[in-house]
Specification:
Order of helices and strands: HEHEHHEE
Oligomer: single chain
Strand content: 15-25%
Distance between the termini: 24 Å
Number of strands: 4
Shape: elongated
Strand order of the largest sheet: 1-2-3-4
């Protein structure tokens, strides 16, 4: 388990951590405020507000692990090689690019 989605994209089992896309958007808001004259010291410190859960079913299968359907339903992304029977309403299934 890792806090970076790149871990699951590279073959790790599960990643749960901040959305770097969302962090970049928030950083742009801070840059905008500073360019409009706000003092950086006056800006509040923010915690990440959007977290992502990415599950790699290919790795789970290789390890002989069964991921509960309730966890698959909560995932923001499920990585799989091919046709997978996922619960109705499950997150987007990504298939890694062929090398």
């Amino acid at each position: 388990m890792s806090g970076s989605r790149g871990y699951a994209d590279s073959g790790g089992l599960i990643a749960y951590g901040p959305s770097y896309f969302d962090l970049s958007r928030r950083a742009a808001v801070f840059v905008d405020k500073i360019l409009k004259g706000a003092k950086p010291a006056d800006l509040p410190v923010e915690q990440p507000t959007k977290l992502e859960l990415v599950i790699n079913l290919r790795t789970a299968k290789a390890l002989g692990l069964a991921i509960p359907p309730s966890l698959l339903l909560r995932a923001d992304q499920v990585i799989s090689d091919g046709p997978t029977r996922l619960p109705v309403g499950c997150a987007h299934v990504a298939r890694p690019a062929r090398r």
